[in-house]
Design goal:
The protein has 166 residues and is mainly alpha-helical. Helices cover 57% and strands 4% of the residues. Strands 1-2 form a two-stranded antiparallel sheet.
């Protein structure tokens, strides 16, 4: 998703969810609509508890050792995302969460995400298992450390010597 459409998406999603509540409420009634929302919330909590934070810890450990997080970590990570979407009240997010449980959708997500992983940093220096490239095949990652980039403070700047809250 492009960064320029994210604010619009975040503003329109709640409106779409409210419209979904109204439509479902008209079709099945208020109490069944509330029961469905509560059922999706409880299901999301149960799935999140089952998967736990362990998947995020494993991804972090693999990233720190320089190993590219593999497809075997995608399934639990997608389940964590789906469970978080189920916790959010609304039917549109529930539909997206249910789609995530379909293996074909997870395969499409893997094809989309796998070439965007960048793992930097290992025990023997900075290395990358995969680097994003532009259309011409050139790397779009600039890897700098403290010796490559250093900026001296400008004493003439109006912000020189200021700290947050001053």
């Amino acid at each position: 998703m492009r960064p320029t459409i994210i604010p619009g998406f975040l503003l329109l999603l709640p409106l779409a969810e409210i419209a979904g509540f109204v439509l479902v409420g008209k079709a099945i009634g208020l109490w069944l609509t509330l029961a469905l929302v509560m059922l999706s919330f409880i299901t999301g909590i149960a799935l999140l508890k089952r998967q736990g934070i362990g998947i995020l810890r494993r991804m972090s450990e693999q990233g720190q050792t320089g190993v590219l997080p593999g497809r075997e970590l995608l399934r639990p990570a997608m389940f964590v995302i789906a469970s978080l979407l189920l916790i959010i009240p609304g039917f549109i997010t529930d539909i997206v969460a249910i789609l995530i449980f379909i293996p074909a959708v997870r395969d499409l997500a893997w094809k989309y995400v796998s070439h965007r992983f960048v793992v930097v940093g290992s025990a023997n220096g900075y290395q990358s298992s995969a680097r994003p490239t532009d259309r011409d095949g050139r790397s779009t990652v600039v890897d700098l450390d403290a010796t490559d980039f250093h900026r001296e403070p400008d004493g003439k700047s109006p912000w020189a010597g200021k700290h947050i809250g001053d």
